Amino acid sequence: MSRTSAVVIAIMALVIAVLAWLLWTEPVSAPTTSQVQTATTTATTTPIAKSSASQATSTAPLDTKVIVSTPKSGAVVSRTFSIAGTAPSGWFFEAVFPIMVRDDNDNAIGRTQGRAQSDWTAPGPIRFTAQVTLETAYKGPATLVLMRDNPSGLPENDDSVEIPITIK
Fold it and tell me: SS3 for 116?
């Protein structure tokens, strides 16, 4: 390699080193007051959707959109009973959501899954059905709990609907 090539390579390396130093040592500027006010205003006026993008225009909580047609609140059911109704698509994950039955001491006495009866990703209410068989011979007041499926595990994504029933 010639002496001229070596000098050119050394100069290029020096320029790259200086540019890299400038890039990593440049201080990050703090947002101005107007930028902070704009961000705050935007955050307080933008509706926050708790569900999928298809329901982003609605600000009502998802649990208010769950309608259980069977059993009705206060119904008397046997050890095995059916559950049916509609829920928003954001209530499901992979077309299912968990359902639990709790006795009056808050012990889980039955578990199942609500299953979408159509495309669970479609906008609007999705029909679901489920069949539950209680794990014990419990009789008396109980609570049917339909839970939003929350694969993220984040508490802000938890939601549920509770329906009082009586086991005969």
Answer: strand
Nearest CA-CA partner of 152 in 49, 47, 51: 51
Residues of the chain with pLDDT under 50: 28-58
Task: Report how many domains make up the chain.
Answer: 2
- Collapse the DSSP code of 49 into the 3-class scheme (helix H, G, I; strand E, B; otherwise coil) and give the result: coil
Domain extent for 9 = 3-45
d(Cα 46, Cα 27) in Å, to the nearest integer? Answer: 32
Cα-flanking dihedrals φ and ψ of residue 115, to 5°?
Answer: -120, 130
Cα–Cα distance, 149 to 90 (Å, whole number): 8
14 plus 78 within the same structural domain: no
Task: Express each pLDDT in 110-128 by its tens digit.
Answer: 999 999 999 999 998 999 9
